[in-house]
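Record 1 of the preview.
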Amino acid sequence: MSFSSLQTKLKAGVMSIALAVTTFSSLAAHPNLVITEDDVVKMRGALDSKGFFSERYHSLKAQVDQEIVFPIVVPVPKDGGGGYTHERHKKNYQLMYRAGIIYQLSQEQKYAAYVRDMLLEYAALYPSLDVHPKRKVKSQNPGKLFWQSLNEAMWLVYTIQAYDLIHDTLTDQQSATIENQLLRPVALFLSEGQPTTFNKVHNHGTWATAGVGMAGYVMNEPEWVEKALYDLDKSGEGGFLKQLDMLFSPQGYYNEGPYYQRFALLPFVTFAQAIAHNEPERKIAEHRDGVLLKAIDTTIQLSYNGLFFPINDAIKSKGIDTIELVHGVTVAYSLTNDTGYLDIAKQQGQIILSGDGLKVAQALDKGLATPYAFKSVAFGDGSNGKEGALVIMRSQLDGDQALLFKPAAQGLGHGHFDKLTWQFYDKGEEIVSDYGAARFLNVEAKFGGRYLPENNSYAKQTVAHNTVVVDETSHFNGDVEVGNKNAPTLNFFETSEYGTVSSGEISTAYKSVELERTLALVNLKELNSTVALDLFSVAADKAHQLDLPLHYKGQLIDTNFKLKANTKQLSALGDRNGYQHLWLKATAKPEQGLARVSWLNDNGRFYTLTSLVKGDEAFLFTQLGADDPNFNLRNEHSFIRRLSDTKQHQFISVLEPHGEYNPSKEYTLVAQSRVTNLKHSQQGELVFVELEIADKLYLIAINKAELASKKSFKYQNKSYSLNGRLGVYLINNI
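->
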């Protein structure tokens, strides 16, 4: 069906039920979504007392006052993401929502009048609009006000709340105009007009169902609510509840990763609150054993130093202060009274003007916040929690360290081809890094603010991550559909006094190639320090080229082997699958023994990766930026361990944080690695690593048996006991 035919059908549908709309809408209590009548009474009572809630109210009121003195501007849509009209419509729905809240609390008519007038302007404009002129040519989900219907759904989520907040100030004629010429056409366009998106189990579908379902509550359209919950056919094959069932694991991990988890959180939380307020008998907070509350908590856990772990398509500057998680934390505290959430709310520095927000503000006023507990945890992936896992290892032994290990599922279209990759964080900074997404969000000058071409040609490719690449080809040959059908296996995860250890494997990333990785964040208590141990095994039925990149943040300081640098002319490392974007800066071939690469991070600390090599590996030092005519990529650094012709290999290395560099006070401490020896051996399912560091000799034992239990073993004629997966033993002081 053409869009013009669709418009005709939708207009006919609107006219046929126009008379019923006014009658039914008059029966609803307003406001009745996130904020209720009871909430308003309590919030008004808190405005005269000093505290966080009152401060937030007066601050927001001052902001709204500054905006509403200007003429209302509702422009004809013209620009893509980040352009003037896009940003104007985005600002408009946010301003209507805020002005609606200020009206309810202040009872000053000017705020309701402002929202009313803007809604009437939109009601005059919307019927004249065709699909957006900057829509993606191949996209099946264009908007009208925005270039994609996702933004249209976001507009509806906010705007329907604004309408709900000022509804009772409107005449019947004004309500009829706004509903029949604006809100109803938008809701129908996002649902019946785009059934594939509306029924899709995806964050776009979440926003659409939330907007339409909330409109159903406000406008007394129970059929809309049912369709939003169970899909257009009410079959349960799609819709909001199906998304709760399919997009989250039982632990509350969202399949697309932390960045999109926080993005989808707001429609999930907002619509859930509307359901709870209008139909408490649905017990939405209890759905799937409280999966939504788990999702809020998991979103917090998926962060380090206030920023989300940037796996998959992620903008690296997004963190726990994002408005979606502010709403989430507000709801989580209201449901649980867990004072750890108040710690996060304090860090967010924002208060939501709602009934739940009032509870948070009053608790903060009383000083009830307690430290939020960040944990080492393995979040099962997939709706059943059995499609691999995203693993977080943490240590407070020597600062604040985190290791992220990803034997996780593909993550749909926003997923990257990075099975078994890892990242490392220390003292507030990213040390072993992930590129995240190649995108300048809402910067129209950079490809309209959309994902850049380099997102596909580099950021998603396996070589952009810290995992094995076979024959310069990405996992699953770069096919998302294949990737979605083949998840890694989490072999085990355990945390104890010795640290945290986890293992994962996958045999479908490449044909007839098995990849297995074991990572451990190991506590060396005698040294009051932590090291990251990496054991990566590759087994294939024929010889391949194997590359293992490590992308690092900082300045290269030293290697214990000679580099052959390309100082006059650079060439790209390859011609496809991300290699075409890597300048080859230098090469080396370390002799058998230990190969060390050290760098200095902006946090003033040194890091050394010490690898056990046999003399058959090449080290390739690269810089990002080749084949990038528009300078879209950041000039980041990596080094790649390469074996040219092998069937089996085990990459063994240890990452050691050490020393300090203070240019302000002009001192440097322990700039050289303290690792002097590294050995590896195995007895059945027991793996042993000898680590000689800072004049101490440690034995690190890992039990890979299917059922890890207490084991006694001998190592170099000495008896040891291993209770669990990981053991760390100080053999002697050297």
